[in-house]
Amino acid sequence: MKGARRPEVRLPPLEPWREGELEPDGDYDGLEFRDRDLTGQDGAGARFMDCALTGCAVDGTALGRARVLDSVLTGLRGVGTRLAEATLRDVEVVDARLGGTQLHGAVLERVVIRGGKIDYLNLREARLKDVVFESCVLVEPDFAGARLERVEFTDCALKGADFGGAALTDVDLRGAAPLEITRGLDRLSGAVISTGQLLDLAPVLAASLGIRVM
């Protein structure tokens, strides 16, 4: 089992962002977005490099195909944030409160998601490499068709996860409590779980194999 490589984000001195709204394909470098209401704004295809987003509202914010690099995202809150086919590389996401975040087809590499709660996270067909979910709550996350390599769940609640059609390599689920998988138990080759988790999953495993336990 190979452990995930964590990001080492060292932000330079940042300038406060003073513009009115995000722009499609915008270029944001060395900026601090603090307590900004980005609700419904369109930053599709934008690039964020060496940025800090702190306490921002991102309800329905369009960030499809955006690139977020060497950045720290703290206290983001919102529903329906659109990040389909985005790239997150060397990023820390801290204490997020999000629902229905769309990350299908996205690429996450050297990303830590620490603290907070994310409901209905859509990572279908995404690629995750060196990603750590730490001390957070994930409710019904969708990893269907995704590729996960060196992904760790540490002190993390994983409720109602869907791994249908996913491909897992060096995925450490031992720190997930509870570990609830509703679909894709047959795709867990390449993952490691604890003995206790195996016992917890036994009824679902038996049902998936058509075994009746009397």
Number of strands: 16
What name goes with the CATH superfamily? E3 ubiquitin-protein ligase SopA
Fraction of residues in β-strands: 35-45%
Q: Main sheet, how many strands, which sense, barrel? A: 16 strands, parallel
CATH class: Mainly Beta
**Portion of residues within helices:** under 10%
Number of domains: 1
CATH architecture: 3 Solenoid
CATH topology label: Pectate Lyase C-like
Q: Which sequence of SSEs, written as H and E, runs from N to C? A: EEEEEEEEEEEEEEEEH
Rg estimate, integer Å: 18 Å
Query: In one word, what is the shape?
Result: elongated
Features of the shown structure:
214 residues; 16-stranded parallel β-sheet; mainly beta; 7% helix; Pectate Lyase C-like
Account of the 3D structure:
Pfam families: Pentapeptide (PF00805), Pentapeptide_4 (PF13599). The chain has a 16-stranded parallel beta sheet that branches. The termini are far apart. It has a single domain, classed as Pectate Lyase C-like. The protein has 214 residues and is mainly beta. It is 7% helix and 44% strand. The mean pLDDT is 95.
